[in-house]
Amino acid sequence: MSASRTTGARLSGAAGMNRRDALRLFGLGALGVAAAACAPSGGSTSNGGDTKAKNFGFSSWSLNEEASKPEVQKIISAWESSHKSKITTTAFPYNEYLQQLTLKLNGGEIQGAVHLDIAWLAAIAQMGKLKDLGKVAGKGGYTDVSLKSGQYDGVQYGLPWTTGSIGLIGNQKLLTEAGIKQHPTTIAEFEDALRALKELKGVTPYAAATKVAQLKDIFPWMQTFGCTILDGDKVTIGDDASVDAVEWYKKLHDEKLIAKDVDRFDARALFGQGTVGFYDDAVIGKGATLATAKEKGLAEQMVPVPRPVLKSGDQPRALLWGGVIAVVEGEGSDAATDFALHTTSDQATTVEYFSKLALPPTTTKGLADPKVAADTFTTDWTEKITKTATPGPFWAYAKNAQIEEAVAKQVQAVLVGQASGKDAMKKAGEEVSALIKG
Amino acid sequence: MTTAEAPVQTVEEPVRPTPPPAARKLRRRPDRIRSSIAAWTAVAVIGLFGMLPMYWMLVTALSPKGQAFQFPPKFIPTEITFEHFRTFAENEQLFDYMVNSVIVALITAALSVIVSTYMGYSFSKFRYRGRKSLMNFVLASQMFPQALLLITLYAVFRQFGLLGTYTALVLSFTTFTMPLCVWMLKGIFDTVPDALLEAAAIDGASRWRTLHTIVAPLAAPGMIAAGLFAFVRGWNDFIFALTLANKDTMTLPPGLVNTYIGEFQTSWPALMAASLIVSVPVVAAFMFLQRYLVGGLTAGAVKS
Fold first, then answer.
1. Which end of chain B has less Cβ packing within 10 Å, N or C?
2. Residues on chain B touching A60 (C-beta within 8 angstroms)
3. Which CATH architecture has domain B88-299?
4. Which member of B69, B210, B254 has the closest CB to residue A292?
């Protein structure tokens, strides 16, 4: 008898259940278990536990990174020994951090203090798990611009740990060689400076972002040309100013004043070889560029340059950049709040952190400390660029990344000649409006 | 009925002089050389395409930090350093990640093979209601985007308190390896003649014994191929390991990203050195088992 014909017997039993019924029952049971497991945790605004507990968690991407890990660990160890408590650390890579944090915060796995990029604050605050730190923020002595970076919807959800901006960095040696005596302040002067730099052999005048991943750098230029990008809930991308900005970018591209296929990493690598006049970076980018630079003495040649304006008297635009420490409501949240305040505002701690990582403090006292003030690059940056920096226009939206990508793709279409500035910006505006509504 | 006989015609074939063997060889030689050149060119191009990324990994791993980032890049490094390999060896945490990877990948491979063997055998040699539906159901799980399943699996594992355990990693990896393994092994079991099973039954062997002592040895190459596939899947996974593991159970892929890729800097030379080192076990496994892999993957392709 063939084995293939030996099976198929019905299950017999007291209940008279056949195999098909058993399978159905099993399927329903499995569905039930899965549904129970996947059920939301009740939309709680707290992750539960004793808020007065001395032990708490701390999540940060800095706990992974070669440069910052020892310094952050030092702060944690000092807190643990002085407060006789235990801080449980969690770390994810920067690029995966938001996704992991969102998932695990929702799952109730994340407790205590959480390090957040200011661009993510709105998305995390909207989950309703963060504590309002308004009462303690006043004790920190933070600068206005720093304090604002930790706010969403008028509530202080984060205490500012680092506040900087993304602006232009210039290579003073090349600028001098090109005969540029003063840093350009207007778009017209900037174009002249780029053309002068182009005359130098092997030099990319402006290593602006031209890859989709970093083309969000177009936003400050759009603002420079007068586009508000967002007016209330109305998207203004597609107006004349945004079209002018993109067509200007295209002009730089066609004249080879900016290069093809460049992102932040490429720009740093090129700048590090002393072959770039200007590029966009955050204040901390100096350290990252120098770490892999071949050009000797480059550190002294790096200068912060306020973004040129359309007409004299306009305010230079820059994108705010930095990190805050927020606190999750629930287990250990009181101690985590104290830890966040200490880490971000204690004079000795913040100055030590600055001296090791070049991340500027966020307090008035910290910025005035002689050790910080002696670093002219940082003080110039804070004074010339960060002072007028503004948050990303779409940070408040959970689909921020998709919005930035939608605009970036249209800008790239203009750069490669697939679309006109007007058509591309109209399409970008429509896509962004749809993403905001969705 | 009679048929007219067709006149028999004998057509004499023109007799061609048979060239001597040496002359035949000479005439074929240019053809052979041409096809040889074409074949070798194809092999060289495909080989270059496949090996270039590996070569570039090696070059980057051996380059000092400054040189690795120079633009335009140098195809042949002018300076060589083993510093990045040394830093990998000195990092104890990476060793822990490696141990975790070995444990998780091996258990995933074993579990996938065991479960898939029974399922594949059942689908191949037994006929019962719901068999085809079950087979399609198993295959359907491959059709969901992994990110979607990640959220579901995360919620299920959280509910059962399995987050941060090897069990969560092994079960999630097996979810993805099993469908292909089941179908691969079913194809292989299909090639085992029923007569063999009937003979075993006549000789008094139970179904259990038939599978383990007669069918399984015949399907061994397929089982090894399935195990190797599952091992590689478990070894390489990034996003599930990152989400479901904790500090103590973290495997190599997220561990390497954690260690070398930062917000502002990526230690490419060190990352490439580490990647080369961690690929050694997989390459060794492939080299050791490649004859089974090829045999196993093609065994179920043709039914007798």
1. N
2. none
3. Orthogonal Bundle (1.10)
4. B69
Give the span between the Cα atoms of B241 and B162, in whole angstroms.
13
Are the CB atoms for A50 and A332 separated by under 8 Å?
Answer: yes
- Chain A residues in contact with B79 by the CB 8 A cut-off are none
Q: Does A91 touch chain B (CB under 8 A)?
A: yes
| B128 vs A7, A39, A103: nearest CB | A7
User: Backbone dihedral region of A200: left (phi > 0), alpha (psi from -120 to 50 degrees) or beta?
Assistant: beta
CB contact under 8 A, A65 and B263: yes
pLDDT digits (tens, 9 = 90+) for B241-261: 999 998 899 999 999 998 888
Q: Which two tokens stand for residue B45?
A: 């191009």
Residues of A in contact with B127 (CB under 8 A): 4-5, 7-8
- Four-point Cα dihedral A415, A247, A427, A412, nearest 10: 20
The ipTM is 0.73
Q: Which residue numbers in chain A have pLDDT < 70?
A: 1-48
Instruction: List, in order, residues 6 or more apart from A117 with CB less than 8 Å away.
Output: A97, A98, A322, A323
Contact B233, B175 (CB under 8 A): no
CB contacts, 8 Å: A270 with chain B:
71
**CA angle centred on A290, ends A284 and A295, rounded to 5°:** 150
| B4-39: pLDDT as tens digits | 444 445 555 555 666 666 666 666 677 888 888 999
Q: What are residue A325's DSSP bridge partners? A: A115, A159
Q: Are the Cβ atoms of A20 and B160 closer than 8 angstroms?
A: no
Which residue among B129, B194, B198 places its CB closest to the CB of A19? B129
* Chain A partners within 8 Å of B201 (Cβ): 1, 3
Name the residue among A191, A119, A165, A192 with its Cα closest to residue A306: A165
Fold of A165-319+393-437: D-Maltodextrin-Binding Protein; domain 2 (3.40.190)
In which residue ranges of chain B is CATH 1.10.3720.10 found?
Answer: 88-299
Q: Which CATH class, in words, describes the domain spanning A56-163+321-388?
A: alpha beta
Q: Please, where in chain A does CATH 3.40.190.10 lie?
A: 56-163+321-388, 165-319+393-437
A107 touches B at CB < 8 Å: yes
User: What pLDDT digit, counting tens, does each position of B100-119 carry?
Assistant: 999 999 999 999 999 999 99
CA distance B25 to chain A (A): 55
Q: What angle do CA B233, B235, B238 make, to 5 degrees?
A: 85
Whole-prediction pTM: 0.78
**B57 three-class SS:** helix
Give the H or E element holding residue A281: strand A276-282
Give the one of A1, A3, A293 whose C-beta lies nearest to B125's C-beta. Answer: A3
| Whether A354 contacts chain B with CB within 8 A | no
Interface residue A393 vs chain B (CB under 8 A): no
Nearest to A288 among B65, B239, B265 (CB): B265
Contacting residues of A for B65, CB less than 8 Å apart: 291-292
Phi-psi region of A153 (alpha: psi -120 to 50; beta: other; left: phi over 0): left
Cα separations in angstroms, A209 against A193, A206, A268, A279, A425: 18, 9, 11, 8, 18
